[in-house]
C-alpha cells in the first residue's frame, strides 16, 4: 500500500468521476462515474473495501471511513461499505455507516457512525450526529441542536447542477487522479 | 466584544443595587450615577421586521398584531422561510386548441412559488399548501379557531371603555349635582339611592355582555388506539412548536402552517430620575448605531483582573488589576474599603463638598419632550440591599493612581511613555498610555468557614475623578468631581489552607 503502484491498483475510478489528487484515498476503493471528490477529502478503507456509486459529492475535509472501532474483534467476513448514488457529504462531515442509500445529504460537521444504516433521501443536519445502531427510515431529516426528526414530503433533489459545475471547474485548477475503469453499464439517471 | 461571552469576573454595583459587568450598565451624565437595565425606563422607538427591514408606525403595528405581512417563519424550527421558485407542473390533458401555434411551440415559462426553510427543509408543500403563482403574498391565512369569541370580548371591552370615558367626562364637566354633597363623603350614587330606599338603577346595556366562559370538568376521551398504535415521534409536534402558536397548537407536523414573522423593536432607555436618555438608537432599522449611548465603559474606569495567586486561608496572595481610563480627561483613582459612602464629592476652594445631583435636577425642566399626559410616569425605586459579601480581606493602597486620558494615537506610538508620574513602585507594576497595572494583596477570611474550591470575591469602592462637561446654569465651566463606585471581583477559587 505504500508504493504508488500498489495504491493505484487498489483504487478504481470510473470514467467521468472527478477525484482530486490532493484527496486522501486509502485501501480498496471503487468510485462510480460523475462522483466528485474534493481536495482534502478522505476516503479510508481500512477494514474492508468502500464502493461509492454515481453522482456523489464528497466535499473538502469530509471523511468516509470503513474502520473497525478500537478494540473490536476481527470480523469473520470482510465488511464492505456501500454508498449509493447522488449523496452529498458536505464539509467536515464524517460517515462510517456501512450502508448508505441514494440521495442522502450529510451537512457540515454531521457524523454518522458505523452501526447506522442510511436508507434513501435522508438529511443529517449540520453538526448532528448519529451514534446508536439504527436504520434511518426514508426521507427523514435530522436537524437542530436537539437532533429533532421529521419526515420530509420529498427526498432532496440530486445536485446535478453542482456536479456539472464542479466537473467543469476542477480540471482547470486541480490535478486529478486518472480514471482507470470503464463504465460497465449506462449511468442511470 | 469579549465582554459578551466571558463570565462576569468584575462587577459594578448599580445605584439601584443590582450587580452587573461594566458592559451592561449605563452612566447618566446628568445625575452622575450608574444606571442599569433594571432602573431605567424602556420606551419603544420603532417596530421593524428583522427580515425585510420594513419600518412601521406603531398604530399600524398594532393593527397587524406585531407581525410582518410579508415575511414568514418556519413553524418547525422558527427560522425565516424563503420563497423558492419551481417550474410549474405541466398540466396533462390540456388541449391548447384556442392558442395559436407559436405559443404552443414556446410556452411562456410559468413558475410556481413555495416557501421553504433552508435550515430544516420544511416546505409549504409539506403542509399541503398549494403553490402560489405570485412571488409575494397570497398565502392562505390561518384562521384562529377562537376568533368569534375574541372579537366578542374585544367589542365588549370597547363598550366598557367608552362607558367609563363617558362617566369620567360627565364628572369633569358637571361636577355640581345634587349628589355632590354625598360624594364628599366618598359615597357613590348607587349608595345614595340605596340609602334613600330606592332600588338600584336598572343596568340598561346588560344585554351585550358576552357569555361568560364556563369551566368544564369533562375532558374528551382518548381514542382507544392510543394504547395500541405505535408512536411515531417524527409526526408529532414538540411542545415548543405548539406554544409558539398558542391559538392553534397543532398536534401533528403536517398541521403546521407558516406563521408571520414577529416584529422586533428598537427601544430607548431613559433615566428615571432626570428623564434624560441614556441610550437612544438611530431610528432606521438598517442602522446599528446610536444617537445617544451613555454606556458606562465610556465614562467609568474599567477594571480587569490580570492574575491572582492561588488563594489559601490565612495567607496573603498577590492580585494584579489592570485599570483603564476611557475618558478624554485625566483621572485620579483611589481605592477605599466597601463601607465607604458613595456620594460624589467635589473639591472647591472651600474644601470638599458633597454634591447631590438628584435634588438639583428635580427642579429643572424635564427634557422628556412627550406631553405629560402621554408619557410614562417615572417610578423611582429605593435601591435594593446588597446581598454580596466579600470572603476575603483586601489590603488597599493609600496613594493615588493617576491615569492619563485616552489617546487613540498613542497605541501606534513606539517612542515609549513620556509621562512622568510619581508612582508608588509598590503599587504600580506597569503603565502604558491610559492603562496601568496595580498590585494589591488579598487574604481570605480566617474566621469564616470557607470550603475548598469555593469562589472567592473581594470588594472595594473605587473613587475616580470625573470631569462633567455638561454646562448647567450654575456651572458654566467643566466641573471636576470625585465619583465613587462599588466593585466586586471574583478572583478565583480557594485552593486550601496553610
Automatic annotation (TrEMBL), chain A:
Gene3D superfamilies: Hexapeptide repeat proteins. GO terms for cellular component: dynactin complex. The keyword Cell cycle does not apply. It is found in: Cytoplasm, Cytoskeleton. GO terms for biological process: mitotic spindle organization. Its main location: cytoplasm. One of its GO terms (molecular function) is dynein complex binding. The keyword Iron does not apply. Keywords: Cytoplasm, Cytoskeleton. Coiled coil: none annotated. Part of the dynactin complex that activates the molecular motor dynein for ultra-processive transport along microtubules. PANTHER family: DYNACTIN 6 (PTHR13072), DYNACTIN SUBUNIT 6 (PTHR13072:SF0). Belongs to the dynactin subunits 5/6 family. Dynactin subunit 6 subfamily. This is Dynactin subunit 6.
From TrEMBL, chain B:
It holds the Pfam family Dynactin_p62. The keyword Acetylation applies. Its main location: cytoplasm. It is found in: Cytoplasm, Cell cortex; Cytoplasm, Cytoskeleton, Microtubule organizing center, Centrosome; Cytoplasm, Cytoskeleton, Stress fiber; Cytoplasm, Myofibril. Keywords: Acetylation, Coiled coil, Cytoplasm, Cytoskeleton, Isopeptide bond, Phosphoprotein, Ubl conjugation. The keyword Mitochondrion does not apply. One of its GO terms (cellular component) is cell cortex. It comes from the Eukaryota. Belongs to the dynactin subunit 4 family. Subunit of dynactin, a multiprotein complex part of a tripartite complex with dynein and a adapter, such as BICDL1, BICD2 or HOOK3. The dynactin complex is built around ACTR1A/ACTB filament and consists of an actin-related filament composed of a shoulder domain, a pointed end and a barbed end. Its length is defined by its flexible shoulder domain. The soulder is composed of 2 DCTN1 subunits, 4 DCTN2 and 2 DCTN3. The 4 DCNT2 (via N-terminus) bind the ACTR1A filament and act as molecular rulers to determine the length. The pointed end is important for binding dynein-dynactin cargo adapters. This is Dynactin subunit 4. It comes from Neodiprion lecontei (Redheaded pine sawfly).
